[in-house]
Amino acid sequence: MYAKTHMIAGGIVGYLISPTWVGVLGGAVSSLLSDIDEPKSFIGRKTLLLSVPLNWSIEHRTVTHSLLFAFVSAFIFFAVTVLTPLYMLGYVILGGIISHIVGDMLTGRVMLFWPMKKKIGIKMPFWIYRIVDMLIRLGLIYLVIHQLVFGNVFKNLLSNSIL
Ligand SMILES: [Zn+2]
C-alpha cells in the first residue's frame, strides 16, 4: 500500500484507540514504520542510513511486517515511556503498525508470523494493486469526511486533552 493510504488508515486506528490529536498523529506516523526496510519508500527515503543497510540484510515485507515487530516496537515504547503520560501511546503505535501490516496484506503478501517464512496476504499484479489502493484510500477519505461532518470526531478532537 502507498504511504498516504497507510497514514490515513493509521490515523483512523490511532483515533479509535485514543481520540485525541496525538492519537491521530501517532497512528499516522507509526503506520509508516514498517517500510523502514525499503529505501524507496516514503520513510525509507528519509532514513537512508537505516533503510539501506536494513534492505541489504532483510527482504522487504518480512521482519518489519510481522506481529513480532509490532509488539516489540510497542513494548520498547512502553519501557522507555513507562513513567510518563506518553506511555498510553504504546497502544497507538501497536495499532498503527498493525494497520500497516493489514493494509499490505490487502494488496500483497507479508511474513506476518516472522521468523516463520510463510507469506500471507492477497497477491496481485501492480496495476490491480494501484486500483485497490486507490479504492481503499478513497473509501477511507470518505469515512473520515463523513465522520468529521456527521459524527462526533471533530468535537471529540477539540474537547479531549492532547493525550
Ligand atoms: Zn509495507
TrEMBL record:
Q: Which residues form a coiled coil?
A: none
Pfam families, alphabetically? Answer: YdjM (PF04307)
Q: Where are the transmembrane segments?
A: 12-33, 67-87, 135-154
Q: What is the species of this protein?
A: Paenibacillus taichungensis
Gene Ontology MF annotations: hydrolase activity
Q: What is this protein called?
A: Metal-dependent hydrolase
Entry keyword Hydrolase: yes
Keyword entries, A-Z: Hydrolase, Membrane, Transmembrane, Transmembrane helix
* InterPro entries in the record: YdjM-like
Does this UniProt record's set of keywords contain Transit peptide? Answer: no
